Structure formats: structure tokens, C-alpha cells
Amino acid sequence: MRLLSLILSTALCGLLPVGRPAWAGAPLTADQFDRYTQGRTLFYGFDGVPYGVERYLPNRRVIWSFLDGQCQDGEWYPEADQICFVYDEIGTPQCWQFSIGEDGLIAQFDGDPEATELYEAEDLGEDMLCLGPKIGV
């Protein structure tokens, strides 16, 4: 009985992925974001169309693509109530406020309700495609 009580209270605190997390709707902390994304590849949509895909690796490393086969390595870090990404080819941080909605992750650019809002898209049945480097003559 004590074990069941411990499991239920842990799930309610958002520490176990049982249904929708208790922290759904609120901005995710860095730990919550890491637990949700770690080891996953998530597709994102914008205005009903596929927008991009990101693979979340250990040690806050990521790989991003706009679904064009061109991938960018980067890393993320927390900044106030946002998660900021810096990619090797783009030195300017891209900061987003993440929360959990009915269908998964929601990302609000710069935490601004008037700015771009991405949402976790359903599984597109595709793998993340990263083409090799451009080689010219």
C-alpha cells in the first residue's frame, strides 16, 4: 500500500510519464523539458503543416532540421522560464517557452503569445533525414 501511494504521488508531481503530466500547461523547467525530450525525435508543426524535426541527445545536445535534409547540431540551456538553443551554424540563441498541451509539446517563440507557436506533431511515419555536407568542385 505504501508503494502504491509513493508511485501515485510521484506521478502527480510529474516525475513519471503516466498520462498527461501534472505540470501540463505551465512553462516547463529545464528538468521537465529534459525528461520529456531526452532520447526522442520530435516533429513540429506550424499552422497545420510540418515545420521541422529535432532529435534530443544526451547532455542537452540537439540536431535540428527544417525537413529539408539539412541538419544543424546544437545545444540547449535554460534562461529564466525559456529554453534557448544555439546551433553550430547560427550563433544567435533561439529561445522558446515550452509547455505541455492536450496533444504534446507546445513551443512559443521568445515566450511571446503573438510570436510563432510550434506544436508537437503526430508521428509522421518518417525518420529524421540528414544529408551529408555539400561538396562542390
Find the count of extended strands (DSSP E, 2+ residues): 8
| Strand line-up across the major sheet | 1-2-3-4-5-6-7-8
What structural class do you assign from the helix and strand content? mainly beta
Percent range of helical residues: 10-25%
Number of helices: 2
H-E order: HHEEEEEEEE
- Residue runs with pLDDT of under 50 for 5 or more positions: 1-20
Name the shape in a single word: globular
Distance between the termini: 70 Å
Mean pLDDT: 81
Percent of residues in beta strands?
35-45%
Rg estimate, integer Å? 16 Å
Q: Characterize the main sheet.
A: 8 strands, antiparallel, barrel
Features:
mainly beta
Summarize the structure.
It contains two helices and eight strands; from the N terminus they run H-H-E-E-E-E-E-E-E-E.
Give the helix/strand layout:
Elements: H1 2-12, H2 30-37, E1 41-46, E2 49-56, E3 61-65, E4 71-79, E5 82-87, E6 90-101, E7 104-109, E8 117-120
Antiparallel strand pairs: 1-2, 1-8, 2-3, 3-4, 4-5, 5-6, 6-7, 7-8
Task: Give a verbal description of the structure.
The chain has 137 residues and is mostly beta strands. The protein contains two helices and eight strands, in the order ααββββββββ. Strand 3 (61-65) and strand 4 form a beta hairpin. 20% of the residues are buried.
